[in-house]
Design a protein that fits this description.
Blueprint: H1 2-66
């Protein structure tokens, strides 16, 4: 009976190390997803601001040429 409890405790100790590694891998995967999303969203935002700035410059050039 004592040997059974020792085996259960030994197995429990082994699981704690594995779960720590699993949590570390999970955190690394989440961080990788966040980085990928930040870069992809960043390019869309950059393109949107660039398009807006180009249109403002074009409108400003058109308005200054027609103003007296």
């Amino acid at each position: 009976m004592i040997e059974y409890f020792k085996a259960v405790l030994a197995r429990r100790r082994d699981d704690e190390g594995a779960s720590g590694v699993e949590y570390g891998l999970l955190v690394a995967a989440i961080a990788a997803v966040i980085v990928v999303l930040a870069f992809s969203i960043g390019s869309f935002v950059h393109d949107g601001f660039k398009k807006t700035c180009d249109e403002l410059k074009a409108n400003n050039a058109a308005n200054t040429s027609t103003c007296p």
